[in-house]
Amino acid sequence: GWVEPVDKRSKAVFMVPPGETGGARDGDLVRGEPDPRHAHQLGAPRARIVECLGNVAAPRAISLIAIHAHGIPTEFSPAALAEAQAAKAPRLEPYMLDLRDVPLVTIDPEDARDHDDAVWAEADGDPANAGGWHVLVAIADVARYVVPGSALDRAARARGNSVYFPDRVVPMLPEALSADLCSLKAGKDRAALAVHLFFDAHGRLRRHRFVRALVRIAANLSYRETQAAIDGRQSDVPCALLDAVLRPLYAAHGAVAKARAKRGPLDLELPERQVHLDAAGEVAAITVRERLAAHRMIEDFMIAANVAAAQALEAAHSPLIYRVHEEPSLEKLETLRQYLDSLGLRLAKGQTLRPRLFNQVLAKARGQPLAEGVNDMVLRSQMQAFYTPDNRGHFGLALARYAHFTSPIRRYADLVVHRALIRALRLGGPGALEEHEMLKLEETAEHISMTERRAMAAERDSIDRYLAAYYRRHVGDVLTGRIAGVARFGLFVRVEPGGGDGFVPAASLGDDYYRHDEARQALVGETTGDAYRLGDALDVRVLAADPLSGGLRLAAVGKAPGKLAPPKARPSRRAGPRDRAKRR
Question: How far is 356 from 264, CA to CA, in rounded Å?
């Protein structure tokens, strides 16, 4: 038999000798490995089947491909499962503050699989802070259950984070914890590591105080129903909850939003595609997740809590793992400046580089035909965030110090920060950071930075394959698109509906020879001057869509979007073909 790699970058086909098929049948998805016994033989390379994963046409095969291709751990050891099953619901302990009478609420996406964080707010009663706000952010106390050196800890560290696919989640912790005892469910007593945040009338964080607590969530709300309630539209949110909890939260956020605007974090448009599956697991629709004021509110409160964690640990002279985002490199800045110059836009030079300078460019481009291209280029100019015990600030958020504290159910970095807070602030109870962990923070930071990149790649590949499955029904159709990437060998075009990225080879664009003008992010015809620029609208015909590889092959329809003057002679370098998503 024969096996064909699902990786679209691989062109090899492997022969599987009789007896090495592992019981797999034609059309099965398999995990194989090259057979070293036949490495020096002529002809097609040989492989043997290690595992049969089921039929490739099964709906759940798409995420399985990503899981196995990226080596995502999916099984917990018997010891880890036993520890999770043995965990008990929390009771009030001497080191815990009883906050069960505070009507905290969680606000999450409608499809949230766990609830890490809950919030509540009131006007600050301190006369010295007139017009100020007291916001309580309660985070699941995962450190209570996942103690250093345990089987659960080893499993969580190996994963580094949960991985989310349209049809499943690969959790960092067993479901007995991630979906139950650690999740902040309404009406249930739950252990929390909470922080009292005190803001002044201008939204500046004046002080904070961390406590371990027992909480009882008043309601698990979605962003959509929260926004509807605040806007006065029909909602299932009770009036008492709206008046006592949501209105004070929104009022407090009004102050915090002022401080954010003054700080000037990077203001990029980052649409999040959402794949909707039907009951059979097939792609029913692809939408862009709606961005509401409720999203911004929770995001700002979580950022403030993360800053407070970093500040508290620094003040206690404790080592910690920071979330770092460095400023763009000089090379990336020069590439961006050349592109902006070609559009008549200018990124100021000679000043201290701040996110606000990029925001000025984005604001000028907003509403213009090439606004999406400008947004994409600014995004690509940014560095990828990572974890390190060395503080280098967070450029994108315009913050001098930042750590991840608010999602310990799904990120190991947050769990380490929780442990550090328990130790440094002497909060009592189990789960404090141990000496041997402190000595390995750099190693841990490097590891979880890797697992985050691994998860991002797996999630992105899975989305690409689901999109390809969706576009199979559009093969032969002409769709509207926009050029999302320009390389020497062709164009990457983002098509609608769905927002999938497909490829148009340069050789298919016409009789002219198209030269890559990297400075202007364009392919330009040497004879005609016809140009295809980043951000240009372009109608395309879908030629092929392959769910196995995630590939989407397109052909340009009609004339080039415009013309440019002949490009200046300059070295041609191959541009990065795909946008690399950046995470905070």
Answer: 5
**Would the pTM of this model clear 0.85, i.e. be above it?**
yes
* Per-residue pLDDT, 61: 87
Residues 6+ apart with CB under 8 A from 537: 369, 480, 481, 482, 561
Alpha-carbon gap, residue 418 to 411, rounded angstroms: 11
Instruction: Write the pLDDT tens digit of every residue in 277-315.
Output: 999 888 999 999 889 999 999 999 999 999 999 999 999
How large is the greatest C-alpha to C-alpha distance in the chain, in angstroms?
85
CA distance 309 to 404: 8
- Confidence band for 581, pLDDT divided at 50, 70 and 90: very low
Alpha-carbon dihedral sign for residues 497, 501, 502, 503: positive
Q: Which of 219, 236, 240 lies closest to 105 in space, CA to CA?
A: 219
CA dist., res. 132 & res. 44, Å (int):
72
**pLDDT at position 565, please?**
59
Among residues 237, 239, 191, 227, which one has the least CA distance to residue 93? 191
Rounded to whole angstroms, what are the CA distances from 312 to 270, 402, 409, 417, 485? Answer: 31, 11, 21, 11, 43
| pLDDT digits 0-9 by tens, 408-424 | 999 999 999 999 999 99
Q: Is 317 exposed, middle or buried (0-12, 13-18, 19+ CB in 10 A)?
A: exposed
Token code pair at residue 280:
């059979």
Query: What angle, 0 to 180 degrees and rounded to 10, lies between the N-to-C axes of helices 412-424 and 441-471?
Result: 150
CA distance 499 to 272: 10
Choice among 115-124, 344-353, 550-559 with the minimum mean pLDDT: 344-353
C-beta separation of 459 from 71 below 8 A:
no
Domains and CATH numbers, the chain: 2-58 (no CATH), 78-321+389-466 (no CATH), 330-381 (no CATH), 475-563 (2.40.50.140)
Q: Does 497 sit behind a cis peptide bond, omega within 30 degrees of 0 on the bond before it?
A: yes
| pLDDT score, position 38 | 60
